[in-house]
Amino acid sequence: MTTPIKQYQNVSFKELISYSENNPNRNRTLDSIEIQSAKSLQETSLDKLGLKGYTAFNLNPSGIVSLYACISDPSSYSLSAKGARLQQIIEYTTKLQEQTDELKNTSLSRKRKKIHDLIGASYNGTKFEDKDYIELFTGISLMRNIYFVLMKSAVQENIEEGEKQYDSSLKGEIVFSSDPTNWKQEYPVWVVDYRARWVAIPSEQHAQDLHKILANWLSTIEQTGWIIQWPEADGTKIEIVEQLSLLPTWQQTDKKLTKDVLGARLGRANCIKVFTKWMTNNIETI
């Protein structure tokens, strides 16, 4: 005897609410549980990555909109039950999608619709392509005046891709949500996981503001095996060489390098210059 195939029917959100209101067990609740131990599992110290006093707060649920909800109000997010978090994410999804209209007259005007769709995809938990993450981070960065330093761990990436062998000297990759030479110190900076699984949160009193430590932190972590995708400086090769030749690290043999390599080197120098200036400024940052 063949088992009949079950037929499923889509229902609207209003219909779900109506069903729940007629549920005779709707007033039943589960016994309260202790969440302190669970919270400790959500956090991992980032001291080994050079971010002293910071912890990686694991997002639940993960995703870029969930991450945005967290950084908008970290205390509320961390103390909220998952149901309350989901409600926050719904609200932020709507707000961000509405705000994509403001991208019409920006450098992202042609990607406005895609960013709108990616916001919805993030809420729905749709699997992202690698490039989708950076495009959505870039969009939110521009719309909300927030800067992201994205970390992609080589160990985590290889575990997910099922790679058994890889270069252990390569720790991972760091990408910026936009060109840091255009960043302003009055806007917040967040160090986050590339795939929006965690966000670095200051958890100790000795944790310094990221604006003050970015220059030293990036220079140091780059020496430990992290590859930083510095933005390439604009200009002809001659113009780039002229600027690089003013730096103490310049050597005449460097002229033989390609324009792309020299452009990235100048881009790095310009970024570090911006971050170093932040260290010496007394401007109060957000």
Describe, in plain words, how this protein is organized in 3D:
The chain has helices spanning 13-21, 36-41, 64-72, 74-79, 82-99, 112-124, 130-144, 154-161, 210-222, 237-244, 259-280, and strands spanning 43-45, 54-58, 147-153, 172-176, 189-193, 198-202, 226-228. It is an alpha/beta fold and 286 residues long. The chain has two domains: 45-229, Cathepsin B, Chain A, CATH 3.90.70; 232-286, no CATH class. The strands form two sheets. Strands 5-3-4-7 form a four-stranded mixed β-sheet, with helices on both faces. A three-stranded antiparallel β-sheet has the order 1-2-6. A hairpin with an 8-residue loop joins strand 1 (43-45) and strand 2. Helix 5 (82-99) packs antiparallel against helix 6 (112-124) and helix 10 (237-244) packs across helix 11. The model is unreliable at 5-14 and 29-41 (pLDDT under 50).
Draw up the topology in text:
Elements: H1 13-21, H2 36-41, E1 43-45, E2 54-58, H3 64-72, H4 74-79, H5 82-99, H6 112-124, H7 130-144, E3 147-153, H8 154-161, E4 172-176, E5 189-193, E6 198-202, H9 210-222, E7 226-228, H10 237-244, H11 259-280
Parallel strand pairs: 3-5, 4-7
Antiparallel strand pairs: 1-2, 2-6, 3-4
Helix pairs in contact: 3-5, 5-6, 6-7, 9-11, 10-11
